[in-house]
Amino acid sequence: MPHKPFKAVIPAAGLGTRFLPATKAMPKEMLPVVDKPAIQYVVEEAAAAGITDILVIIGRNKNAISNHFDSVPELEVKLTEKGDADRLQRVMASSDMADIHFVRQGDPKGLGHAVLRARAHVGDSPFAVMLGDDLIDERDALLTTMLAEHERTGAAIVALMEVDPAHIGMYGVAAAEQTDDPDVVRVTGLVEKPKPEDAPSNLAVIGRYVLSPAIFDILERTEPGKGGEIQLTDALQELAADPDGPGVYGVVFRGRRYDTGDRVDYIKAIVQLAADREDLGPELRPWFKDFAAKL
């Protein structure tokens, strides 16, 4: 039978407390990264991988996200009248790239709970979970590789990245076995935010997952774990430990990733992306050098 089309789920119900007071009234997912909100990069990544049915999990005070992906006829008319075709195209792109749906999480009880809220929309389709804190450079393949690996194996697929052991306690961490592919490992266990001395490896789970609907039954019975929240990591651990199931595999990403969940890393992401832009880089790069020389 042909494979069902993939859907995508983007959890966006967090409060963004690390960016207060900027996120008091603005969703953290709408903070600009150069000239687009962070969440638009994630939607563009899904669309580029061929996923056009996207569900965003939102909470209170997140209406700005749905407004952003809606059309704004009065703005489009003004730009048309001015003959500003470039800005018109960019404005329309955000509402044309995919079919975007929204559901409320209600009481935020962790990433696993947010994913569970997608059950009715996802149905029996395989789906990607994409966290807005992690932006993947469009020049580096990740999601397409993960989708292909899921189709090949039927397993749950997580994105992994080698990180400094000193920072390993910030992530879910995978115990893994090598496969014939140097960029794909079989995950034998997962630990959420371990102490460095307890970490099974330096392979950290970053914000991309490809899952089958089987994950929902596991999440339904998953008890709150670290932080009193329902952890997706705990459900994946159960899949990894099942000797009769397809298991969990990890795609090791070695490309460019921008972490926008931390204030310093958010600023670094803006600098890196702006410096690489053809329209901004030629002016910015010499300025960066002069500025750095004065520090």
TrEMBL record:
Alphabetized InterPro entries for the sequence: GalU_uridylyltTrfase_bac/arc (IPR005771), NTP_transferase_dom (IPR005835), Nucleotide-diphossugar_trans (IPR029044)
EC numbers: 2.7.7.9
Catalyzed chemical reaction(s): alpha-D-glucose 1-phosphate + UTP + H(+) = UDP-alpha-D-glucose + diphosphate
GO molecular function terms attached to this record: nucleotidyltransferase activity
UniProt keyword terms in alphabetical order: Nucleotidyltransferase, Transferase
Signal sequence annotation: none
Protein family according to the UniProt entry: Belongs to the UDPGP type 2 family.
PANTHER family xrefs: UTP--GLUCOSE-1-PHOSPHATE URIDYLYLTRANSFERASE (PTHR43197)
Protein name (database record): UTP--glucose-1-phosphate uridylyltransferase
Organism name: Microbacterium lacus
Lineage of source species: Bacteria, Bacillati, Actinomycetota, Actinomycetes, Micrococcales
